[in-house]
Design brief:
By secondary structure, the chain is mostly helical. It has one domain. Helices cover 81% and strands 0% of the residues. It has ten helices and no strands. Helix 3 (36-56) runs antiparallel to helix 9. The longest helix has 28 residues, at 177-204.
Length: 206
């Protein structure tokens, strides 16, 4: 039981450790200290639902529609291009009064953006429904499979809440418009790099 749980934790943590679009957004909100708890809960909760689906064997639903990966890649790339453009525009204009004053966008808008990062990202489905679901089949018996899945879910909650609340440690560095400008340029580059990978994947598989 312990071995299955630890394997699930290590697998889940390694899959979400890389800085991607969703993680960059959580980091930025953590620096702003805006809706951190609900944002982290949404991201980790979404992962939990997908991991549970993968362990339960619903990955077959993804393969039932062969065009789904391409559709998701195109939709995700479009969103990332637009969001990256917004970050570049903010960096160009250099107006960070809201960030420096701690003003916040609404919770609904924050969660809506997080939902797009989460559910329009085909790699999320590949990692959770596909990879974690596939690894879970290596454990005999439903109990061990669900312990493995629980370990992956715990890893997701640990990562997102650690990232969201740990980001405030960088707050002293983010006290100038220049620092926010650099961060937004980095986030914009990450968004466009991921969008490029998604478009390449979509058209190479067309």
């Amino acid at each position: 039981m312990i071995g299955a749980g630890l394997t699930g934790f290590a697998t889940g943590f390694s899959l979400i450790l890389a800085i991607g679009a969703q993680n960059a957004f959580v980091l930025r909100q953590g620096l702003l200290r805006q809706h951190v708890f609900w944002l982290c809960l949404f991201c980790a909760g979404s992962d939990a639902l997908l991991i549970a689906a993968g362990v339960a064997g619903f990955s077959a639903l993804v393969s039932a529609w062969p065009a789904l990966p391409q559709v998701m890649s195109l939709a995700g790339a479009a969103f990332l291009i637009v969001y990256g453009l917004l970050r570049f525009r903010e960096a160009w204009q250099g107006s960070y009064a809201m960030e420096l004053d701690g003003q916040s966008r609404s919770l609904g808008k924050t969660i809506a953006i997080a939902a797009a990062f989460t559910w329009l990202n085909p790699h999320v489905y590949l990692d959770t429904l596909g990879l974690i679901g596939a690894i879970s089949t290596g454990f005999e018996g439903a109990a061990l499979k669900w312990v493995f899945g629980a370990g992956a879910v715990i890893a997701s909650f640990t990562f997102f809440f650690g990232l969201g609340y740990g980001a405030r440690l960088l707050a002293p560095v983010m006290q100038s418009p220049r620092a926010w400008r650099v961060l937004d340029v980095i986030i914009g580059v990450v968004m466009w790099a991921i969008a490029t990978k998604l478009l390449t994947s979509a058209f190479s598989g067309a």
